């Protein structure tokens, strides 16, 4: 129930969080995890649900710790060490243990105990969705590891395109606003000058008219 509340909060917060390249994958992952947690809890699949949570949380702890040392304290070496350990744990748990032990048990070995039913297909489809997401994120992690070994890793691989695009969009938006502001100021100045010239002309005409009328009266 604590894990379900945690992923529920992540799903609600993701709409106001920084949108990265894997935004859609994050939404799919949170929804699949919430369905899996709810289904395993209601169907009393406590052991399989606990194993899935254990495999996922074992690497997530390392990832959050690496982020904490990177953004919070700036301990770069500690962050790099935790990132390497995280990459190894992630690849082993989610690309080796998860498909070979968890999915194999739920998909094949469970058929030796009972016949397939609706929940069997739902449960295994959601687990395979998670596995597909694991492969996607493993590719990003391997790219980050490659850049790390080359000494070119400066930020999160997921934020490269997103951050640059946001900066460009922000710059373009600011330029557009500045251009619009300049155009508006120029138009305002032109309108003000035209009104002043009209007012001046009218004042001059009134003075001339008044002067002529006074001369005629005289």
Q: How would you portray this structure in words?
A:
Its main location: membrane. Pathway: Lipid metabolism; sphingolipid metabolism; Sphingolipid metabolism. Keywords: Membrane, Transmembrane, Transmembrane helix. Residues 159-170 have a biased composition (Acidic residues). It is found in: Membrane. The chain has helices at residues 2-13, 23-42, 46-73, 76-107, 118-150, 160-217. The longest helix has 58 residues, at 160-217. Helix 2 packs across helix 5 and helix 4 runs antiparallel to helix 5. The model is unreliable at 160-164 (pLDDT under 50). Helices cover 84% and strands 0% of the residues. It has 218 residues and is mainly α.
Distance between the termini: 103 Å
- Rg over CA atoms, rounded to whole Å, is 33 Å
Overall mean confidence score, pLDDT: 80
Spans of 5+ residues with little confidence (pLDDT < 50)? Answer: 160-164
Shape: elongated
The secondary structure category is: mainly alpha
Helix count, DSSP H or I runs of 4 or more residues: 6
As a percent range, the share of helical residues equals over 70%
Helix and strand run: HHHHHH
Biggest beta sheet attributes: none
What proportion strand?
A: under 5%
Q: Count of DSSP E strands? A: 0
Summarize the structure.
The protein is mostly helical. It has 6 helices and no strands. The relative contact order is 0.08.
Q: Any key phrases for this structure?
A:
218 residues; mainly alpha; membrane; transmembrane; Lag1/Lac1-like; Ceramide synthase 2
Write the layout of secondary structure elements.
Layout (H helix, E strand, L loop, with lengths): L1 H12 L9 H20 L3 H28 L2 H32 L10 H33 L9 H58 L1
Helix pairs in contact: 1-2, 2-5, 3-4, 4-5
Membrane topology: Multi-pass membrane protein
Keywords: Membrane, Transmembrane, Transmembrane helix
Subcellular location: Membrane
């Amino acid at each position: 129930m604590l894990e379900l509340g945690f992923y529920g909060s992540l799903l609600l917060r993701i709409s106001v969080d920084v949108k990265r390249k894997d935004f859609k994958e994050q939404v799919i992952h949170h929804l699949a995890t919430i369905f899996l947690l709810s289904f395993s809890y209601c169907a009393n699949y406590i052991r399989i649900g606990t194993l899935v949570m254990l495999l996922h949380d074992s690497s997530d702890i390392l990832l959050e710790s690496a982020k904490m040392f990177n953004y919070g304290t700036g301990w770069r070496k500690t962050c790099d060490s935790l990132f390497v350990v995280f990459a190894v744990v992630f690849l082993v748990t989610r690309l080796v243990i998860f498909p070979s032990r968890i999915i194999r048990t739920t998909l094949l070995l469970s058929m030796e105990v009972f016949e397939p039913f609706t929940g069997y297909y739902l449960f295994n489809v959601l687990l395979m969705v998670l596995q597909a997401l694991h492969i996607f994120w493993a590719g990003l992690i391997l790219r980050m590891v490659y850049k790390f070994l080359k000494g070119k890793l400066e930020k999160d691989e997921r934020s490269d395109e997103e951050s640059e695009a946001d900066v460009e969009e922000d710059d373009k938006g600011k330029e557009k606003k500045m251009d619009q502001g300049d155009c508006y100021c120029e138009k305002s100045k032109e309108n003000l000058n035209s009104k002043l010239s009209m007012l001046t002309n009218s004042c001059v005409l009134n003075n001339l008219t008044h002067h002529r009328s006074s001369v005629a009266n005289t």
